[in-house]
Design a protein that fits this description.
Mean pLDDT: 87
Helix content: 40-55%
Distance between the termini: 36 Å
Number of strands: 3
Strand content: 5-15%
Radius of gyration: 17 Å
Structural class: mainly alpha
Oligomer: single chain
Low-confidence stretches: 119-129
Number of helices: 8
Length: about 150
């Protein structure tokens, strides 16, 4: 099985956290690895940067997005738990949780809004709303594209 994208991980992650009450990223990754029956090779596959395992990165981004939507909180460093909002969402029994669903929460919409630090009239499109790749994977892909030669032989 291929390593699930971060949006695919959101619902199973939220359900796992609801069962555990409080958990860590490591416990979550271990659970999702077993749940999706990832092979040892898939589990150890690194991002192109070589700095982190893909499943850890994607689980981390799923957690971040759920937290930005107010579905998770972090009562202490390295620990996270489900919020009342997260419990309410699970009661709706959604078939999946993805960026589109998270846009119902104003905090998440604000999180995705491009920074207004510059006075430029140009806006940066949100690539994460239409992509299954994490922001880090998108960035690394862009870097790899920029490193390609400008001509072909």
């Amino acid at each position: 099985m291929a390593i699930p994208d971060y949006q695919t991980l959101m619902l199973p992650l939220l359900k796992f956290i609801a069962e555990k009450n409080k958990t860590t990223l490591k416990e979550s990754v271990d659970h999702l690895t077993a749940m999706f029956k990832l092979t040892p090779e898939e589990r150890s596959t690194l991002l192109p940067s070589g700095n982190q395992e893909i499943i850890v990165n994607r689980t981390g981004w799923a957690r971040t997005y759920l937290k930005k939507a107010g579905l998770l909180s972090s009562p202490q460093r390295g620990v996270f738990e489900i919020t009342e909002r997260g419990k309410e969402l699970l009661k709706e029994n959604p078939p999946a949780i993805n960026v589109k669903l998270l846009k119902r929460y104003p905090e998440f919409v604000e999180f995705q809004r491009p920074s207004s630090d510059d006075d430029s009239s140009e806006t940066t499109p949100s690539t994460t709303s239409t992509s299954d790749r994490t922001p880090e994977e998108l960035l690394l892909g862009s870097v790899q594209e920029l490193n390609l030669p400008y001509w072909t032989t």
